[in-house]
Amino acid sequence: MWPFRRVPTIDPTNGDPRARALIAALTARDRTAVREIFASTTDPDHRTFLMNIVSDTSGVQDWIGQWIADEPAATLPLLIRGCHAVGWAWDARGAAYASQTGSEQFAEFFRRLRIAEDCLDEVTERDPDEILAWTWLITSARGRQLGPEQAAARFQEVVKRAPYHLMAHSQRLQQLCQKWSGSHQEMFAFVREATAAAPAGHPLPALLATAHFEYCMALPSGERSSYIGSWPVRQDLVAAADKSVLNPAFVRVPGWASRANTFAMLFWLNGHYSYANRVFDLIGDQVTESPWEHLSDEPAARFAAARREVRRNGG
């Protein structure tokens, strides 16, 4: 509850002690500690949260090859190299649209994605049930433009083992976005089906908020405010939040914070301050870079400004 920090600090670990320990282990290049952290974590979404930490940690590519060479029978270092290489590839490409991305950037992007796919394909051959490999292969398929069938097949490999997997669904949504290779119709059909299927208290219905934001950003700039502030969007957001982060059954599973931040941002943009305030109260100071980075180069400051606006307007 209030008061919170005026401008909170983004914590990539979301306060998760294993994630903090993992960052320390990666920084120290401590193979034993990294292995123990993953060995002690069995929940698919928690393991994914930890692998996202790995993917976002710079410099892993400089030493992971030696671990693979020293332990050729071990799957974990190969998995780490593959997942990290997907994020490393996107670092090379940048966040700009394809028309604004240079040929050298694309060449390096595809080179790194090939490294990723070689590693992750070998992991799935050794262990077909490795959800992390299939999840990062969904993202890689989008980057390599492998087509809708391949992307869908990789998604199915995840959800047949973890039906409500957060990152797999998020990456599938991106694949179905108009800006990649899908359509608004496909995107909304997918997220509505996933939202309906998700159990009460699960963060997955935040996909609906993300879909509305993706649709909004695809509109001409002069039409965005009226769309995101519309009554149908508000109804969707309320129903999704009531089923997920504002449901009495809600549990703060790893990855919950970015989904709650998505709801907070969309309710604020929609002008539904009472619901925005409830979500901001849930979040506390647990601001996440996504989705606020889409609105500002200083996401924590944008989060804090939105929260203050909500409070001033009777949230």
Structure overview:
Helix 9 runs antiparallel to helix 10 and helix 14 runs antiparallel to helix 15. The longest helix has 24 residues. This protein starts with 16 loop residues before the first helix and ends with a helix. The protein contains 17 helices and no strands. 66% of the residues lie in helices and 0% in strands. The protein is globular.
Index terms:
globular
- Structural class, please? mainly alpha
Shape type:
globular
The protein's oligomeric status is single chain
Which consecutive residue ranges, at least 5 long each, have pLDDT under 50? Answer: none
What is the terminal separation in angstroms? 13 Å
- The tally of strands reads 0
Question: Please, what is the average pLDDT?
Answer: 92
Q: Give the strand content.
A: under 5%
Topology diagram in text:
Layout: H1 17-28, H2 31-39, H3 44-56, H4 64-70, H5 76-93, H6 103-126, H7 131-144, H8 148-159, H9 166-176, H10 184-197, H11 206-218, H12 224-228, H13 231-243, H14 256-270, H15 273-283, H16 289-292, H17 299-312
Helix pairs in contact: 1-2, 1-3, 3-5, 4-5, 5-6, 5-7, 6-7, 7-8, 7-9, 8-9, 9-10, 10-11, 11-13, 11-14, 13-14, 14-15
Write a compact overview of the structure shown.
By secondary structure, the chain is mainly alpha-helical.
